[in-house]
Amino acid sequence: MTGPVSNFDVTSVWTDHVVVLPVVLPIAVAGAMFLIDERRRALKAGLSLATMLVLMAASLVLVSWAGEAPRVYRLGNWAAPYGIVLVADRLSAMMLALASVLGLGALVFSFARWGRAGPRFHGLFLLLLMGVNGAFLTGDLFNLFVFFEVMLAASYGLVLHGSGEERIRAGLGYIAVNLVASLFFLIGVSLIYGTMGTLNMADLARRIAVPPGGDLGLFEIGCAILGLAFLIKCSAWPLGFWLPTTYSAASAPAAAILAILSKVGVYVVVRLSLLVFGEGLSLQFGRSTILAAGLATIAFGTIGLVAARDLTRAAGYAVMVSSGTVLAVLGTGNGAALSGALYYLVGSTLAAGTLFLLAEVLQRGRDPARTAEPVFADEYRDPFDDADATEIGVAIPAVLATLGVGFLLCTLVLVGIPPLPGFVGKLAIFMGLAAGPLAAAGWWLIAALTLSSLGTLMPLVRLGIQTLWVRQDAPPATLARSEFAALAGLLAACLALALWGGPALAYADATVDWLVRPQAYIRAVLGPVEGSAP
Amino acid sequence: MELVLSLGIGVLAAAGIWLILRPRTFQVVLGLSLLGYAVNLFIFAMGRITVGAPPVLGVGPGMVSVDDPVPQALVLTAVVISFALTALFLVVLLAARGETGCDHVDGREPHEAEPDAGNPLP
User: Fold this and answer.
1) Do A180 and B88 touch (CB under 8 A)?
2) Closest to A227 (Cα-Cα) out of A260, A191, A259
3) Which entry of A337, A379, A439, B67 is 20 to 30 Å from B13 by CA?
4) Any idea what the Cα angle at residue A81 is, between residues B39 and A73, rounded to 5°?
5) Which of B25, B74, B82 sits opposite A142 (nearest CB)?
6) Mutate which of B32, B46, B67 to test chain A, going by most A C-beta atoms within 10 A?
7) Three-state SS string across A445-499, please?
8) Minimal CA–CA distance to A266: which of A184, A346, A170?
9) What confidence tens digit (pLDDT) does each residue in A463-505 have?
10) Which residues are the signal sequence here (chain A) (predicted)?
11) Which of A153, A172, A189 is opposite residue B74, by nearest beta carbon?
12) d(Cα A375, Cα A361) in Å, to the nearest integer?
C-alpha cells in the first residue's frame, strides 16, 4: 500500500487493526450478550463495562494517531474504490472519542437501575455504539447506510426500553419518521450511484472534481435527498419535531446515548459537504440551505427551551440547539468558526447527555408514570424489584448539593458562561466569524447564538430553581454510587475539555484544516496516483 | 419497459405516501412497505435497465454489456433491513394498541372530529 499509511513495520501489523476495533468489538460482545441469560446481570454489566473501557482506550489511541496521519483500513486489503475502507482521520477519531466517553457515562449510570428495566439493554446498547462508531469510520455511502440502520434499529429498542405508554407512543412516531428518513437515504444513495457510478466518498470527491460524464443536476438532487435524511437525523428545523418528544420519553441512559445519535447526522453533513462540495463542480452546494436550516433550528430549539416545563424536554431542545449551531456555522463556510463549532459540539453534547441523566435523578419518584407496566410480560424480569433497593438508597453526602453542582455545570456549558467549554466554543465561533469577511449571515449567526444563550439560561435557571430549591412533598433525591460516578465522570470530561482547551482547540483547528483540503483525504484513501478510471 | 417501471414506481410511491399520512397505525405500516417497494424498484432502475444482459460474473471476451451488481446488492440489503424493521414496527404497533386502546398514530382519538359521527364530546 502506498500513501501516508505505508510506513508500517512488522510490529504495526497488529496495531493497524485498532481502526476496526470500535466496530468489531461491540458487535461481537453484543452477540455474546444475547446468549447470556438475562438474570446474570453482574456478568453482563461487567462485560459491557470492559468493552466500553477498551473502546475508549481505542478511540483515544486513534485520536493521538490521527494527529500524525489519517489511518486507512482496507478490509481484506481490497483497493479503495472497490473494497470497503474505514478511515480514521481527525474528525472520525474525535467523534469516536466523544461517543465512547458519553457511552461509558450512560452505561455506568444504567448499572444502578435502568439496566434492569427491561430485557437486552446491554446488547442493544453495544449494537447502538457499533452502528455509531461504524458511521463515524466508514469511507463509503453504502456502509454508511448499513451502519446507520444498525444504529437506528438498536435505538428503536432503546427508546422503548423500560416500556410504558409514553415511550411506546413516542417510539411509534420515532420509528415511522426514521423509516421514512432511511428511504430518503436509499433514494439519495441510488441517485448518486446512478449518476456518478461510485459510492466511495473519496472516489466521489475525486470524480466531482473533474467534469463527470453523468448528469450533474441529477447528482445534486441525489445529494439533496441524501442530505434530507441526515437533516432529519440531526433534527434540523422543520424536520426535528420528533426529537424532544422521543428523547424526553426515553429512559435516562438511553436518552443520554441518543444525544450522540443526532450528532451522527451532523457529522455526516459536515463530512460530505466539505469533502464532496469543498471543491469541484458543485462548489458549496446546499450551503445556504444548511445555514438557513441551522439558524431556524437554533431559533426553534431556543423557543422550545423557553417553553419547556420539565428538564428532560429542555435537554432535548438543548440537543437541537447544539446541532443547529454546528449546521449554521458550517453554512457560513468560515473555517475558523467551524473549528470552534466542533469544539462546542463536543462540550455541548457531553453536557446535554449529562443533563438527561441529572434530570432523571432529580425527577425520580415525582412522576410514577415513568416506570409503567410492560406489555410483554413473558420477556420481562422484575424491572425495579426492590431486592436491590438498598443500593439505590446509599447516600452520597448531601446528594442534593452534589446534584445542584452538577446541574450548575451543565447549565454553564449549555449556555456558554466562562470558564467552561460552552463559552470557549462560542467565543471561538464568534472570533472566527469576526475575523473572516463578515457577511450578513455572520451577523445573523452571532445574534442567534447570543439570543439562544439567553434563551437557554432563563429556562434552565427556572427549572433548576423549581427542582432544586422549592420544597417538595416527594421523597428526597437519592443517588446510587454508580450514578454518582457516571455524572462525576461526564462532568469531569467537560471540565477537562475546558482545562485543556488550548490543545483541544488546536486539534479542532487542525481537523478543519484537514477537512477543507479534500485532495489530502482523496490521496490518503485512493493512493497518490490518479487511479485508472473504471 | 421504462414506462411500466416508472408507472409502477410512481403508483407505489403515491399510494405509500397517501397511506403514511393516514391516521391509523396499520395504514402507516402498509404505506411504509409500499414506499419501500417503490424505493427498491427505483434503486434497480438506477442501475440502468437492461434486458438479457448477464451478471458481471459471466464477463467474457464477446460480451460488451453486463448488469451492474452494486444496485442489486443495495436492494438486497434494503429489502432485508426494511423487512426486519417492518416486523419491529408491527410489534410496536401492537404494543401501542394494547397500551393505549386505540390504533390512532397519536395514541388517542381526535375528539374535535367526533361530534358529527355521533360521539358526544366529553
Assistant:
1) no
2) A191
3) B67
4) 110
5) B74
6) B46
7) HHHHHHHHHHHHHHHHHHHHHHHHHCCCCCCCCCCCHHHHHHHHHHHHHHHHHHH
8) A346
9) 888 887 776 666 666 778 888 888 899 999 999 998 898 899 9
10) none
11) A189
12) 25
To the nearest 10°, report the CA torsion of B69, B71, B76, B78.
Answer: 160
- Per-residue pLDDT tens over the stretch A260-302: 999 999 999 999 888 888 776 667 778 888 999 999 999 999 9
C-alpha closest to that of A359 among A443, A249, A197, A275: A249
Contact B105 A190 (CB under 8 A): no
Q: What is the pTM of this model?
A: 0.87
The position carrying cell 447528482 is: A219
Cis bond upstream, residue B54 (ω within 30): no
Per-domain boundaries in chain B:
2-50+68-109
Q: What single DSSP character describes residue B104?
A: B
8 A C-beta contact, residue B23 and residue B1? no
Radius of gyration of chain B, Cα coordinates, nearest whole angstrom: 21
Residue A363 in this model has a pLDDT that exceeds 90: no
Rounded CA-CA distance B122/B118 in Å is 12
Nearest by CB to B39, which of A149, A152, A186?
A186
Residue A450 CA to residue A434 CA, distance in Å, equals: 14
Hey, is the C-beta of B31 within 8 angstroms of any chain A C-beta? no
Residue in A148, A155, A169, A246 to test binding to B, most B beta-carbons within 10 Å: A169
Whether B43 and chain A come into contact, CB under 8 Å, resolves to yes
User: For the stretch A132-145, what's the b/e string if a residue is b when 16 or more beta carbons lie within 10 angstroms of its beta carbon?
Assistant: bbbbbbbbbbbbbb
The second-level CATH assignment, the architecture, of B2-50+68-109 is: Orthogonal Bundle (1.10)
- Rounded CA-CA distance A361/B57 in Å is 59
ipTM of the complex in this document = 0.85
pLDDT of residue B58: 55
**A43, amino acid identity:** L
